[in-house]
Amino acid sequence: MNRARRSYLGLGIYLAALLLLPITLTGQTSVPQPPPILLGTAWYPEQWAESRWEADLALMQQAGIHMVRVGEFAWSRMEPSEGRYDLDWLDRAVAAAAKHEIYTVLGTPTAAPPAWLTQRYPDTLRVDEEGHRAEHGNRQQFNFANSKYRDLARKIAEQMAKHFGHNPFVIGWQIDNEYADVSFDAETKVQFQQWLKMRYGTLDHLNAAWTTSYWSQTYSDWNQIPIETRYGNPGLLLSWKRFVSDTWRSYQKNQLDVIRPNCDSRQFITTNTMGWFDGFDHYTVEQDLDLAAWDDYVGQGHLDPAKNGAADDLTRGFKRKNFWIMETQPGFVNWAGVNTSLDKGEVRAMAWHNVGHGADTVSYWQWRSALNGQEEYHGTLVGADGTPVPLYPEIQQLGADFAKAGSVLAGTSPKSEVAVLHSYDSRWALQWQKHNREYDPVAELVSYYRPLRAISQSIDVVQASDPLTAYKLVVAPGLNVLSDTAAKNLAEYVRQGGHLVLGQRSAMKNDDNGLQLEGQPGPLVELLGGRVEQYYALVDPVPVTGRFGASQGKLWAELLNASSQDVEVLATYGKSNGWLDGKPAAITRQVGKGRITYFGAWLDDAGMAAAAKWMAQTSGVKTALGPVPEGVEVYPRYGSNGAVYILVNFSKTQQTVPLPSRMQDVLEGGARQSVTLPRYGVAVLSANR
Ligand code: GLA
Fold first, then answer.
1. Model confidence, pTM
2. What are the tens digits of pLDDT across the range 440-468?
3. Number of the ligand 1 atom closest to the C-alpha atom of 272
4. DSSP structure string for 76-132
């Protein structure tokens, strides 16, 4: 950058800073602070003439947008040829946004390598499982394990960090974009074999852990070990996924290590993940980041608050603190079967649902569609002509909402009495060996989550190895793979007085995806005082009766056996395949002040609702706000000033919610003893102000 330009830019930044900086009484200025609850959008200044930026930013400001995410696909603009960096335009974009009170999150552009790069270094292109090398023309064509690619990625990230690491209007970094596609090239395979050597030490250990005597799979050389993703030995399959997770982690760390030392500590570093996507273990990758963020798209149809809320809670569980919605749909997407739009009002309702689950930012993808490119049909906030789309006023209302509620929600976060355990190892293991093609581990998790959330109005989704003692109830819907360390943590939780509920297929596998010698639930058999005698895949549901009324078990049934006298049978199977008839379907056992329960049946909705009620009652779980009409979602967030309750009406009709005490209506003003919400209506209520 030439000197004159730099000083011109410096002046621009200075003037913009004057507009935003809070000036203290002593006349000192401090770094500007973005609003606590941020409305944002993905903005691609590189796709437009600079003369247009002002109009776009003014429209964003009018909508109450205070954040733009910029740059994540702009590599060819930032580095037009190898080693020739041009970030001046990005300086100007950040400064122009700041003039409109808009802060920037910078994306490193490594999900979209430029054509010169792939032409010069074809080995940086990823190879798919069938051996085809990717080409230029789309995005994400890079090989995540390739050392040359990592060199180039590191250099551009470093340039950006050195340039923007102290810019007061850059509040954070997004590394790459939606890690997803992996490579099956020869270099990656060698790295996998080296990874196996690190993990197992000797081939004897590996052969024993994977029982490779089966089908003559025994390895006598590390380089004999293949990559398998679907039909291989279960130990091999799980190892590949763990290698992929570690490789994404090191891919990310490669950039983190040059961003962190070059930027202010106030700038966070994140990446944007994809909800239930299970291409890698997110707990592995997230441990190095400051903040979790995900891209929340409904696709076809409407928001399912339980399934989507569980994905919010999953993301909150990565760092066990508030998170961001880095992308969400402005009405509709372009990639679903039928790209239906969310209803009028539903976009705002969804944003508040996310904030209720602990999102501190909701950012729309995208502001305006590029005039050409693969996503021309995707929803936006302004049209191709640059004028607001019909959704824009709803976003504007949201901007006004966030401005009103920001100070009340600042520093608050969800807190739950119930934890639902989630494990990528288990999800993968179940998917590789479903035994019933309809079996979906996420659906199983949500079937527990849904009624439990309706009762408790707040749930954490965490790992079995996380600290659990603060929870009254811990539910593990399908904890198929259980390591000894996690088993110890769970047993300790029960001994300390907690209630652990295991769902079907729990603890069938050890940490290498092999069968547990003790049967199910593996290391917890003794504590449970019972175990799974046999499992049966079902086409037709089986009747289940007992403590949860008369219901039906679907897809899978486990015949339970209680070996200890003090085990209580909660439910039994009715007449079905003969084997199951009259046998225990759910058992529970008190252990000191704690309790362990096992569900061998996947109950239908009515059965699940009754079971959730029993779980909550037995464990002393309370409802956060109090009973509300069906379809009204309650989201408590707690801070030093007490509780704030966000209420969203997802039912089809208007609903009135009685409140347990008089509360401040943060959006509408005034104090209320009850609140009436139209369909998709939102209320933010403060209990202590
Ligand atoms: C993903 C990507 C975005 C965009 C949207 C479209 O989330 O991160 O770049 O392609 O999908 O829905």
1. 0.96
2. 999 999 999 999 999 999 999 999 999 99
3. 8
4. HHH-SBTTB---HHHHHHHHHHHHTT-EEEEEP-TTS--HHHHHH-GGGB-B-TTSP
